[in-house]
């Protein structure tokens, strides 16, 4: 089992479907998950996933035993301290308001405080922003967070792997996040693997084999 731990925050930006998949795969890796959900994040889970009440076993798809839940109003909780050691923090999805608060350093809840601590302690911080289009204010906030050491990972799934449904698009983004956290996974999203397969199919040897059949 992994001895690693991660902080995951859920805020009110659209994109709730990504969170359960990330929590599921972090849980299945054996990692400890410190979960924080804002009131708007809870509203998001209700509106987009039909979760009228918070059921950790449902949200994590069977990995509730790997989760430590923290109250977003409790800025004195463990993730709000720079001395709290973890292997990375992800805010998924990350609202424009949360992005702006983190960029300005003016935090008012536990998610924002934990993010500020991650930056000052030089721990990995990944903000998964989804909104579009972007104002210049949001772009500058992203630049500020990036210069401070954070990673902006927009929720923009790729289509070059020919997704067959929404679950494939979700897996694409979750795989990218797991890669950024250095968490191994078996999601089939590595373009290099597909390029190698195409190259093998197009090689002269394979064509010779086909022509001889």
List keywords for this structure.
213 residues; alpha/beta; six-stranded parallel beta sheet; 44% helix; 14% strand
Sheet with the most strands: spatial strand order: 3-2-1-4-5-6
Number of strands: 6
Structural class by secondary-structure content = alpha/beta
Question: Looking at CATH, which topology would you report?
Answer: Rossmann fold
Q: Judging by the overall fold, what is the CATH architecture?
A: 3-Layer(aba) Sandwich
Distance between the termini: 49 Å
Strand % is: 5-15%
Which CATH C-level class is it?
A: Alpha Beta
Task: Please give the share of residues in helix.
Answer: 40-55%
Q: What is the makeup of the main sheet?
A: 6 strands, parallel
Count, helices = 9
Shape: globular
Task: State the fourth-level CATH superfamily.
Answer: Flavin prenyltransferase-like
Compute the CA-based radius of gyration. Answer: 19 Å
Number of folding domains?
Answer: 1
- The succession of helices and strands, N to C, reads EHEHHEEHHEHEHHH
Low-confidence stretches: none
Estimate the mean pLDDT confidence.
93
Structural features, described:
The protein is of the alpha/beta class. It has 9 helices and 6 strands; from the N terminus they run E-H-E-H-H-E-E-H-H-E-H-E-H-H-H. Strand 5, helix 6 and strand 6 form a beta-alpha-beta unit. It is globular and about 65 Å long.
Layout of secondary structure:
Elements: E1 5-10, H1 18-28, E2 32-37, H2 39-49, H3 56-59, E3 67-71, E4 89-94, H4 96-104, H5 110-120, E5 125-129, H6 136-147, E6 151-152, H7 166-180, H8 191-202, H9 204-211
Helix pairs in contact: 1-7, 4-6
